[in-house]
Amino acid sequence: MTDATVIDQPRDAEFGDFFALLKPRVMSLVVFTAAVGLFTAPVSVHPLLAFASILFIAVGAGASGALNMWWDADIDRVMRRTRNRPVPSGRISPDDARTVGIWLSVMSVVMLGLTANMVAAGLLAFTIFFYAVVYSMWLKRSTPQNIVIGGAAGAFPPMVGWAVATGGVSVESLLMFGLIFLWTPPHFWALAMFMDDDYSRAGVPMLPVTHGKPATRRHIMFYSLILAPVSLALAFTQIGGPLYLAVSLVLNLLFISGAWRLLKRSDAVAEADRYAAEKKYFRLSLLYMLLHFTALLGEAALRWTGFDWAGWPQWV
């Protein structure tokens, strides 16, 4: 890929363009899940150190976004969903995007290491590498399992937050990783179901493009089923409890029933109603993730007040 194939004449960029380069919506999810990992850990962290650590994790997430936009500018340019991003639209040159991504990557990792510990910094460095290199440069254009394996990049932030507080990895942080990792494929496949024309034009081998929508619906059903026990298992760790269990049970019932409804649909029905059910399932998937991590924060808040679920089993 050369710069000439992406943009003819970049225009002067404004601050908002560079902020958009960092993928702020993705960054917000990273910040939220990393903060949950940090605040649910059974180790107190000074508020100033906690704030600084979350800030550097956010910068690392932004660095990943910038490197992804630099590498994917050629395919972003032909997709309706992404063609107005700063690089393909010409507001920021590919060279500038790459430079911003590299410098922010180095700064975020070094500063997190100095602020928190080297375990957290190492996990952040690996997260950036995994998203920018393993997913963006390799998996995304080479296999329909791109989002399955590449989903690990978005699953690391709570582990990073947990490591900031504890200096290590635990069953709890691994289960938070597993929750996001298994949630990512059905979440993105639901989006790809009604955006498949974009991926076809860009030559990205997303599952609906390579295997068809019926196969994609079966995969969504499968992942929604194996996601449920992982998410429920968190209820029986030191960061879970009855509040989280109740929320998770309701969300998993909704998620599985939504996947079942998709499974029973035909392509003709989906096209006739403009993929309304697929869009609804995609929105549900966002709520699924948000409320699971909010429930974990709720359990942490109860513990901070001194409340204890007496006799609650911790099996994991």
CATH superfamily of the largest domain: UbiA prenyltransferase
What overall geometry do the principal axes of the alpha carbons give? flat
Percent helix = over 70%
CATH class of the largest domain: Mainly Alpha
* Radius of gyration based on Cα positions: 20 Å
The major β-sheet equals: none
Whole-number count of domains: 2
User: pLDDT below 50 for ≥5 consecutive residues: which ranges?
Assistant: 1-8
**Structure annotation, total helices:** 16
β-strand amount:
under 5%
Number of strands: 0
* Residue-averaged pLDDT: 92
Distance between the termini: 47 Å
CATH-defined architecture of the largest domain: Orthogonal Bundle
Q: What name is given to the CATH topology of the largest domain?
A: Tetracycline Repressor, domain 2
Structure classification: mainly alpha
Tell me the series of helices and strands, N- to C-terminal: HHHHHHHHHHHHHHHH
